[in-house]
């Protein structure tokens, strides 16, 4: 049996009567080592509370959906048009070349360990090569690999903003921006998008929100939830506002190049002459693998405004969780280089066709005002609530739609844009047609003619 000897060292003679280390603090010797002796104090009862950051973290979509009473009609199979995941229905698989790249990375046994927190140099160079253009050149050092585009957005906000700052967020817009910002003590200011102008930015409203604490402007293009695509001229107008007020841009371009034929939307960075931009993207949507959690930040530092400090800040932030999955990083170069153009074209053709079916079917329903998208995989539908007096708002409307027709559309209150709902257009065509038919039946049942002439977008 061993006994641990504790010697309380309190000799006043050793160091001028000031304790062992001359600072009035008593120490305990444990096998020759000295540790500060804590004062006699303890909690009288257990009191473990969540942090302020945890308490301030709020996801509007989850809060609204979890509070809805969703009881589908047992006589009709459920059709969920609410989930922004193109893999849900199984009709949009990724390309064989993408799968082969993953298999090769696994078989190589080279990517089972930790990668650098910012990503493998070779993988970062592959991303730089893929997205570089003469107007916005990129090198490997301009790329940071992340665990999905969500982490890229998180890092970008974290490096640009302090508590008490404010960021400008589109309305309607992706709810994650607010979830992240508010949890960090950052104020969110919502700038309006205009449905009557295919969801273009209300530039006057945007500019009116900027003050000395505005640290970031978020631009989502193509858009979730709107499916809108900004043309070159409109992007230049947004950049002009940012340049005038010296506000950097976080460009959420996860739907980059998911643009319908006939539309064109260059990257923001390719149009900027002076505004520094952190462009966030990833594999999730264009390559149809959201669960693989591979994203990136592209640093476009016009005139060296970010300088070394923002880059170093991003590096430090990546070290908190040691970054993206190493296996996916190992496959990244082959995914980018070997995915055939036909895969992208087929995906976009399908999304455009489904969007047109949905838009055309819903346009003829009294009381509904769909807005035709130009990209991404969403369509927003306005509800003339005066024509549906059975319901107080879009949440009740979509809730009852589930109850009667087993069709679930996401109420746009989740995007802080009431009296609209969002439809995801990734489901098979026959299900899209069936869903639209059920929505029509539902609206015909609840529609009431309103004396005021309704405006259609």
UniProtKB/TrEMBL annotation:
It is an enzyme of class 2 (transferase). Residues 77-439 form the Aminotransferase class I/classII large domain. Keywords: Aminotransferase, Phenylalanine catabolism, Pyridoxal phosphate, Transferase, Tyrosine catabolism. Pathway: Amino-acid degradation; L-phenylalanine degradation; acetoacetate and fumarate from L-phenylalanine: step 2/6. Its cofactor is pyridoxal 5'-phosphate. One of its GO terms (biological process) is L-phenylalanine catabolic process. SUPFAM superfamilies: PLP-dependent transferases (SSF53383). It catalyses: L-tyrosine + 2-oxoglutarate = 3-(4-hydroxyphenyl)pyruvate + L-glutamate. NCBIfam families: tyr_amTase_E (TIGR01264), tyr_nico_aTase (TIGR01265). Belongs to the class-I pyridoxal-phosphate-dependent aminotransferase family. Transaminase involved in tyrosine breakdown. Converts tyrosine to p-hydroxyphenylpyruvate. Homodimer. This is Tyrosine aminotransferase. It comes from Sparus aurata (Gilthead sea bream).
């Amino acid at each position: 049996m061993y006994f641990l000897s504790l010697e309380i060292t309190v000799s006043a003679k050793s160091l001028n009567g000031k304790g062992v280390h001359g600072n009035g603090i008593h120490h305990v010797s444990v096998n020759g080592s000295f540790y500060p002796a804590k004062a006699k104090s303890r909690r009288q009862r257990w009191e473990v509370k969540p942090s302020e950051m945890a308490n301030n973290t709020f996801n509007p979509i989850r809060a609204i959906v979890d509070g809805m009473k969703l009881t589908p009609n047992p006589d009709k199979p459920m059709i969920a048009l609410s989930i922004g995941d193109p893999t849900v229905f199984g009709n949009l698989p990724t390309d064989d070349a993408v799968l082969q790249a993953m298999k090769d990375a696994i078989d190589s046994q080279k990517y089972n360990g930790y990668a650098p927190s910012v990503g493998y140099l070779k993988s970062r160079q592959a991303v730089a090569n893929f997205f570089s253009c003469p107007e916005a050149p990129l090198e490997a050092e301009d790329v940071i690999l992340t665990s999905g585009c969500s982490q890229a957005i998180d890092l970008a906000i974290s490096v640009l903003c302090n508590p008490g700052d404010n960021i400008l967020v589109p309305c309607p817009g992706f709810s994650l921006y607010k979830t992240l910002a508010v949890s960090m003590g950052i104020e969110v200011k919502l700038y309006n998008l205009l449905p009557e102008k295919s969801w273009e930015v209300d530039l006057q409203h945007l500019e009116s929100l900027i003050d000395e604490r505005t640290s970031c402007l978020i631009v989502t293009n193509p858009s979730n939830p709107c499916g809108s695509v900004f043309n070159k001229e409109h992007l230049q107008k947004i950049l002009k506002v940012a340049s005038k007020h010296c506000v950097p841009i976080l460009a959420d371009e996860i739907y980059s190049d998911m643009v319908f034929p006939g539309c064109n939307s260059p990257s923001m960075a390719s149009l900027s002459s002076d505004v520094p931009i952190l462009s966030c993207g990833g594999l999730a949507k264009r390559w149809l693998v959201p669960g693989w959690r591979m994203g990136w930040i592209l640093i476009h530092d016009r005139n060296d405004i970010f300088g070394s400090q923002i880059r170093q800040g991003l590096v430090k932030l990546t070290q908190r969780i040691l970054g993206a999955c190493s296996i996916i990083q190992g496959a990244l170069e082959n995914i980018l280089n070997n995915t055939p153009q036909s895969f992208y074209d087929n995906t976009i053709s399908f999304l455009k066709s489904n969007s047109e079916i949905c838009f055309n079917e819903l346009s003829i329903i009294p009381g509904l005002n769909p807005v035709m998208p130009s990209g991404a995989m969403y369509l927003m539908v306005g509800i003339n609530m005066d024509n549906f007096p059975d319901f107080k708002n879009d949440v009740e409307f979509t809730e009852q739609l589930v109850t009667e027709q087993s069709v679930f559309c996401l109420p746009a209150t989740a995007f802080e844009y009431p009296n609209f709902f969002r439809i995801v257009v990734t489901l098979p065509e026959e299900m899209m047609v069936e869903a639209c038919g059920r929505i029509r039946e539902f609206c015909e049942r609840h529609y009431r003619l309103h004396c005021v002439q309704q405006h259609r977008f």
